[in-house]
Amino acid sequence: MAEYITCNEENGSINISEDVIAVIVAAAAVEVEGVSGLAHTAGQELYELFGKKSISKGIKVQFDERKIIIDTIILVRAGFAITNVAKKVQDAVANAVESMTGLGIPTVNVHVSGVAFDK
After folding, report:
1. Residue 100 located in a structural domain
2. Structural domain of 110
3. CA 18 to CA 78: how far, in whole Å?
4. pLDDT average per 10 residues of sequence, the chain (119 residues)
5. Of 40, 56, 93, 102, which is most buried by a Cβ count within 10 Å?
6. How many angstroms separate the CA atoms of 89 and 92, rounded?
7. In this structure, are residues 75 and 37 in contact, taking their beta carbons and an 8 Å threshold?
């Protein structure tokens, strides 16, 4: 079951699922030049072996009170500077999540798990 971040407003509350945040993160990350794709973690690969599909492949979202902490695992295309691509992913993800949720700038940790070569 997905976790939610809750924002209490005058007229009620707004609940945003971690799955929604993961979709925003994935869309922003793969748009960055030099990103080949998102990578699986070992746990996600086992999860998918049993027929469960994960929309948040390579993404972990945590809520700490009103702060969002995001870990994303990417593959960088060969020929691109890893640190430059990772920084662009941090910026793109932070901007996308902030603009779509209105919850402030999240903490974005980028993990590069490999380099992808063109076939």
Report:
1. yes
2. 18-116
3. 31
4. 75 88 94 92 49 64 84 95 97 96 92 90
5. 93
6. 5
7. yes
